[in-house]
Amino acid sequence: MSSTITAIAEIDGRPLRGGGALPDHILNASTPLVLRGLVADWPLVQAARTSVRDADAYLRCYYRDATVLASHAPPEAAGRIFYNEQLDGFNFSSQMVRFDQVLDVLRAHLDAPQPPTFYVGSTTIDTCLPGLRAENDLDFGARDPLASIWIGNRTRVPAHYDVPDNLACVAAGRRRFTLFPPEQLANLYVGPLDFTPAGQSVSLVDLHQPDLQRYPRFAEALAQAQWAELEAGDALFIPSMWWHHVEGLDRFNILINYWWRQSPEWMDTPLSALMLALLSVRDLPPAQRAAWQEVFRHYVFDSDGAEVAHIPPPARGPLTTPLDENEARRLRALLLNRLNR
């Protein structure tokens, strides 16, 4: 299917290695970009290019005693990390195990023709493998991203979005990314907001076998999709809110990614606002809902400061623009008081 989807734009990332911080025009972009060879000089990548066993041994050099949340799915799941048929549970189980046990299990199933799925998602590197980033890292300048590791055999993670910007670096194996712009939300048939396989809402459509009778608008999402297949050493910048379906294609795959937000740390996730809107706005009578749509447009989506210019700054309270940390703290306390009434 990927042959009919637009390829993600790409550049040669090798000139960016060792040249200081990654440039802002990449890290602040609103469209995805493949950076070929960006991390090809990482010792972990070099080990993985030699052999799976070399990559395994390299990781073990940094392991101490950390435990990780590991997921397991039967062979019939074909690597797809997903719900059960009723969407009231999942097709995998998870438990906390030692990181070296994950490596043991992956190594034991390297040659199995149809192995079970083993997967460790988004685990903080500095906690799990202290010291690894001393030799395998990137310079983000003033940004202080969260660095995480993902490891497993052949896996398929359904299309989902992340609020932070994301730089995903393939350290071992190959990964296929299929991306959808944020405006394709209605065509992706997204599942529950509050009960998810890994914390984020996911598309219910199986990208490998899309049921276009059940999900007809997904055809339009596919028409707008972009894809790339990355080798060890390549990286992909995924902008905030872009939906991405991620596949680990080999029997042993490692991804290291960096997340950062272009907003202050004290700002809440916009998902909180969505949940509150579902609680208080969505089910209003149509005329009232339309009125509140205008209120949100005026104060939020079209805000440029002019909407509060007539109010003296000391009296603006939550309308202060931009909001600062102290006013955000006051607003959060006000919300909590209202919600707990």
From TrEMBL:
Domain of life: Bacteria
Gene3D superfamilies: Jelly Rolls
Domain JmjC residues, every copy: 118-275
Family matches, as PROSITE patterns: JMJC
InterPro entries xrefs: Cupin_8, JmjC_dom, RmlC-like_jellyroll
Pfam families (UniProt xref): Cupin_8
UniProt xrefs under PANTHER family: HYPOXIA-INDUCIBLE FACTOR 1 ALPHA INHIBITOR-RELATED, HYPOXIA-INDUCIBLE FACTOR 1-ALPHA INHIBITOR
Name of this chain's protein: Cupin-like domain-containing protein
Originating organism: Duganella guangzhouensis
